[in-house]
Amino acid sequence: MSARILLVFLSVVFISACGNDQASTTDSAANQLKKKNPIPPETTSTKKEGYKFRDGLYIERPSAQALQTDFPYNLDNKVFQTGRIFVYDYIMTRKSGQVVICKIVEQKGIPMRKAWTFLPIDQKGEDCILEHQIRVFNEENRMLKFLSKKDLTFVQYRSETDKGPIKGISLLGMVENAENIFLPNPVGRIFNVLQSAPPLYVKSPRTVGNEYDYTIEVPSKYSDPRWGDWQENEVMNFKYKITDETTIDTPFGNLPCIEIQASGGGLIGQSALTTYFNEEYGFVQMTYKNIDGSTMVMKLTEIRQEDPKQKIN
After folding, report:
1. Tens digit of each residue's pLDDT (9 = 90 or more) over 93-137
2. CA distance 173 to 154
3. Distance in angstroms between the alpha carbons of the first and the last residue of the chain
4. How far apart are CA 4 and CA 2, in angstroms?
5. Rounded CA gap, 202 and 186, in Å?
6. pLDDT tens digits for 58-82?
7. d(C-alpha 90, C-alpha 296), whole Å
């Protein structure tokens, strides 16, 4: 069967330091989406020993011993290990050809997800987002107990300016194991356009020629006049293919990678992704072709290890 997933499921809950309007996804909303696009919780024809199959993904079944630990679904992670912080830079080229980054513009009455503007890259200053971080939890978070799905690796997404992290931190769930790695796209402000692009997804066997597909539902809250307005959640269907084995020049040296290409769309438009995946560093480079005709390139610049005693705020 075609691999399907509701993006709302993985974007399980959003956390804001100052009342961010990226509100928590409720069980009732998830149930409404399931009624609209019914997906069986587990498919018998795709069973694999040691895994459960849900919403198009293989999720590992930890051992009884692993379940006694704080993060049983992190133990088999090779890339997204507990406490790691993945730092990405980014650049956007608009359909007009203008090269821009995101400037934060805090204004009363404007939701934080829309309180920003495009700024020519040569004018960037201290109020501009310079990097985006994916932070793997290194401690129990008080919000996790409220989630309906706990069999995931949980990560925080946040952006930073020269003045420090901006308001609004998103808590999302991802999957990593030998069968598949699924990572939601960066989110927040300018990165919300990526919610209608193919998610970061690699499926075994990780060899040239492997093809697979995926379906997401894009919540209406990610609509924006700058790239498109839609009043209801919209379905996007994507096809993936591992197209090449190559070497990518990165801050970590020349890394062997597989090239993954994905494309597709729905009523709100067409989008595409080319990404390069390395077995040690993960998704080291992403090029998104967005529904508004813009292109965003993101590159991994650093991996930090969080102090186990330090809280991820």
Report:
1. 999 999 999 999 977 777 888 889 999 999 999 999 999 999 998
2. 5
3. 40
4. 6
5. 16
6. 999 998 988 888 889 999 999 999 9
7. 7
Q: Is 251 helix (H, G, I), strand (E, B) or coil?
A: coil
> Which H/E stretch holds residue 36?
helix 27-36
Residue-wise pLDDT for 162-178, tens only, equals 998 888 778 899 999 99
The two most distant CA atoms of the chain are separated, in Å, by 56
Of 113, 115, 83, which Cα lies nearest the Cα of 222?
113
When computed from its CA atoms, the radius of gyration of the chain, rounded to whole angstroms, is 19
pLDDT of residue 9: 41
Q: Strands (DSSP E) along 105-205, which ranges?
A: 116-120, 131-136, 153-161, 164-165, 169-176, 180-183, 200-203
pTM value? 0.84
Distance from C-alpha of 9 to C-alpha of 32, rounded to nearest angstrom: 12
For 304-308, the CB contacts below 8 A with 24+ separation are 304/84, 304/85, 304/87, 305/83, 305/84, 305/85, 306/83, 306/84, 306/85, 306/135, 306/136, 306/138, 307/83, 307/138, 308/83, 308/138, 308/139
Q: Residue 79 in contact with residue 280, Cβ under 8 Å? A: yes
